[in-house]
Amino acid sequence: MTTTTHTNRTADATAPKQRHWIVDILGAVSRLVRHRRETAQLLEMDDHKLADIGLSRSDVIHALNGSLLHDPTRELSRLARPRN
């Protein structure tokens, strides 16, 4: 007597890719939320401390007022002025 086992290779092959894609999206959303929260915390600093890191209060507000889908830390990096 011979027995054969049939597997659905198509479903098995795509499952890890779908899981990986979902993990990547969740990681990106988590980073975006964390960066927005950390950027908002900069508003608790006084103007002199912000100036020490090359930013103004309006720079931080500008970065936070951008699209919710954009990382505000990138905008802050662009706006930061080098220290003298």
Could you please describe the fold and organization of this structure?
The chain is 65% helix and 0% strand. The protein has 84 residues and is mostly helical. The longest helix is centred in the first third of the chain and has 33 residues, at 9-41. The radius of gyration is 23 Å and the shape is rod-shaped. The model has no long low-confidence stretch (mean pLDDT 85).
- Give, in order, the helices and strands: HHHH
Please tally the β strands and state the result.
Answer: 0
Summarize model confidence as the mean pLDDT: 85
**Strand residue content:** under 5%
In DSSP terms (H or I, runs of 4 or more residues), the helix count works out at 4
Radius of gyration of CA atoms, rounded to a whole number: 23 Å
**Net shape:** rod-shaped
Low-confidence stretches: none
* Helical content (DSSP H or I, runs of 4+): 55-70%
Strand count, sense and closure of the main sheet? none
**Distance between the ends:** 85 Å
Structural class: mainly alpha
What tags apply to this protein structure?
84 residues; mainly alpha
Short description:
The chain is 65% helix and 0% strand. It has helices at residues 9-41, 47-52, 57-64, 72-79. It is rod-shaped, with a radius of gyration of 23 Å.
List the helices and strands and how they pair.
Elements: H1 9-41, H2 47-52, H3 57-64, H4 72-79
Helix pairs in contact: 3-4
